[in-house]
Amino acid sequence: MKQLKYLVVLSLSVFLFSQLAYAEAKIIHVPKEYASIQEAIDAASAGDTIEVAAGKYYETLELKAGVAVRSQGSESEHKDHTAARRTTIDANGELKPVVEGADGAVIDGFTLTGLGKVNHHVPGHPHGIQCRGASAIIINNIVYNMGSTGIGSHVRDGKEAAPYIENNIVYSNLGLGIGNNHGSAATVIGNIVFANTETGIGIRNGAHPLIADNIVYSNGWVGIGVRHGGFPTIINNKVYNNGIGKAPDKGAGIGIKDAFAPLVEGNVIYRNKLAGIGLRRKASALLKNNETYANGYSGIGLDSAVSVFIENNNIHSNGKAGIGMTNNSSATIIGNHIHHNVNAAVSPRTEHSVVMRENNIHDNGEPYSGEPPEITDPKYNPLTELKDEKAPAPPGLPSPTFFQWTKGKNTDDNKDKH
Questions:
Q1: Main-chain dihedrals φ then ψ at residue 100, nearest 5 degrees
Q2: Nearest CA-CA partner of 369 in 337, 328, 325, 333
Q3: CA distance 89 to 67
Q4: What is the DSSP letter of 159?
Q5: Which helix (H) or strand (E) segment is 5 a member of?
Q6: Which residues make Cβ contacts (< 8 Å) with residue 35, sequence separation at least 6?
Q7: 3-state DSSP assignment of residue 330
Q8: Domain map of the chain by residue range?
Q9: What are the CA-CA distances from residue 213 to residues 192, 302, 406 (Å)?
Q10: Where are the alpha helices (DSSP H) in 285-387?
Q11: What is the pLDDT of residues 153-162, one digit of tens each?
């Protein structure tokens, strides 16, 4: 009984403390109370919200931990970007981030632009919205015409960046639309990313973000690009018409090079310049339940790729092969529907290691172009190449945000059924 009373008192104390903290939080108005947004941020404390009236503000911001910066407008006006279209923050050519992130800070409902042109291949370059060692919440913004990456996250001094990036429109930036580098564990959900000079969404150097429910199109290089040790989870994105730049070897919808993707699932990938999904230079991945069609070369292209597991994908109407393989690539290909590809269903052009079973192959130029692959029933784990069916999962599992996203999606699906 004493323990129960203690728990009740403790719970009541926590509740009262949280209510007191909430009561003390302030709403600070710009420009009514402070002439600039940064002045309001400097005066704010964690838990405060800065509400910015419609207009154009020529400044750059350094966010403060736990402080929300939000444009005026209803929730629906934020969701449909009406609020962002009438409230602009413009760096006016400054060579520093338009917004520097902070842990738990929020930037919500702005048009953000005006970072001057920088060399975004030089270490330490600024991003339009930057989270270096910081985990900010970046929602409902329009990010365009930055002289560097639009939104970027990056470890700093060993501190991980794990920003939450949702419902932003990111376009016409010099370099990447959204960049995840050096250990970033960002959650990138429901953004529209297009017409960026290089890659739409980029992942590299140990970054392990969740990339889900985004629309990524008409970027210069690739739509979603993974390289140099990145290991993202990529699910339910629409990726099309990428590779519009002049680089001859760029143009996959989802491109993975020298990297590992533990799961690429449920994506719709079409009309990209080269492959729908392209893996090269010792890349590996689990590709499941994707539809990839009408791409210039192949639905799935493997060049020096290893340990690729291709299951239950719909691969059709591509300019050359459904699955094209070169340079000692290896794959396990199970349960796919491969049809109406111009040249061949599967095209292993050089030495290869291929295991196939239970695929539905029809109406292609020919079933196989090159040496037909071995048809067998594998008894090993295709990702680890271990014969033990209970072999441990490979490195690079999704970050916890992936499981939170999955739980939320399942809850939403269940609501729809009632």
A1: -100, 120
A2: 325
A3: 17
A4: B
A5: helix 2-24
A6: none
A7: strand
A8: 24-416
A9: 9, 25, 12
A10: none
A11: 988 888 889 9
